[in-house]
Amino acid sequence: MRLNLRVWRQKDLADKGRMVDYSVEDASEDMSFLELIDVLNEKLILQGEDPVAFDHDCREGICGACSMVIDGQPHGPQKATTTCQLHVRQFSDGDTITVEPFRAGAFPVIKDLVVDRNAFDKIIQAGGYISANTGSAPEAHSTPVPKAAADRSFAAANCIGCGACVAACPNGSASLFLGAKLTHLGEMPQGQPERYDRVVNMVETHDDAGFGGCTNTGACATACPKEIPLDVISQLNKDYLAATVRGKRRKA
């Protein structure tokens, strides 16, 4: 297959950046999209040019590192698929594919297709954990969990923190990510002691990081490769309102 790639090239945050056209003449339909970029980079290196910088790690749809916008859609046109799981067979011979970084105020571009997602780490550090007594492990059945709560917690825990929800949101909001993390812990008994401190600290860290507000367009859930349900944002709002009523304040 021959594929034409229009790739965003940007040296650093200060650089304005630009789209650059490339062609890959010998693309296989069995390649993943990241392997396609690998082939392009091998060609660029042999030509003495700077390869395209992009983020990746597991290449198994687990780590969330492969953040890029393909033809205007975070992670590309295939639903419930990360970029590393997207295959070239989703495109046709001769197609022109536009590849850009995730664009959001809270995700500054480091280089080319690589963005800084440290803002997510700050949100997790603000409350994405539980406190547990040290010592011997408790019995597995010592803390009963209702099946519905366990299922909802596991569904929210599927979030891999890739940032596709932020890239898809017209406001650059991370509410789906935040709602997933809060729902994951909030549905479990172990997450109750810090529940309301957690939501206040994480929401205010989210806002301080420069993420926008949620206006319920649903674009985030549509773009999510792990199909996190939109109603986790309702849980986020419910817990935040309850924390406000309880008079919770952000911890310094």
Give a topology summary.
Layout: E1 3-9, E2 18-24, H1 33-46, E3 69-70, E4 73-74, E5 96-100, E6 109-111, E7 114-115, H2 118-127, H3 147-157, H4 164-168, H5 175-186, H6 195-208, H7 219-223, H8 232-245
Helix pairs in contact: 2-6, 3-5, 5-6, 5-8, 6-8
Description:
The chain has helices at residues 33-46, 118-127, 147-157, 164-168, 175-186, 195-208, 219-223, 232-245, and strands spanning 3-9, 18-24, 69-70, 73-74, 96-100, 109-111, 114-115. With 252 residues, it is of the alpha+beta class. It folds into two domains: 3-110, Beta-grasp domain (Ubiquitin-like (UB roll)); 117-130 and 143-245, Fumarate Reductase Iron-sulfur Protein, Chain B, domain 2, CATH 1.10.1060.10. The strands form two sheets. The chain has a five-stranded mixed beta sheet with strand order 2-1-5-3-4. A two-stranded antiparallel sheet has the order 6-7. A hairpin with a 2-residue loop joins β6 (109-111) and β7 (114-115). α6 crosses α8. The longest helix is centred in the N-terminal third of the chain and has 14 residues, at 33-46. The radius of gyration is 20 Å and the shape is elongated.
- The CATH H-level homologous superfamily of the largest domain: Alpha-helical ferredoxin
| Net shape | elongated
CATH class categorisation of the largest domain: Mainly Alpha
Total beta-strand segments: 7
The overall average pLDDT, rounded, is 95
- According to CATH, the fold-level topology of the largest domain is Fumarate Reductase Iron-sulfur Protein, Chain B, domain 2
Which value, in Å, is the CA radius of gyration?
Answer: 20 Å
Which spans of ≥5 residues are poorly predicted at pLDDT below 50? none
Distance linking N and C termini? 56 Å
What share of residues are in beta strands?
Answer: 5-15%
Q: Please tell me the total number of domains.
A: 2
Helix content: 25-40%
- The neighbouring-strand order within the major sheet is 2-1-5-3-4
Structural class: alpha+beta
What's the story with the biggest beta sheet?
5 strands, mixed
CATH architecture of the largest domain: Orthogonal Bundle
Q: What is the string of SSEs from the N terminus onward?
A: EEHEEEEEHHHHHHH
How many separate helices?
A: 8
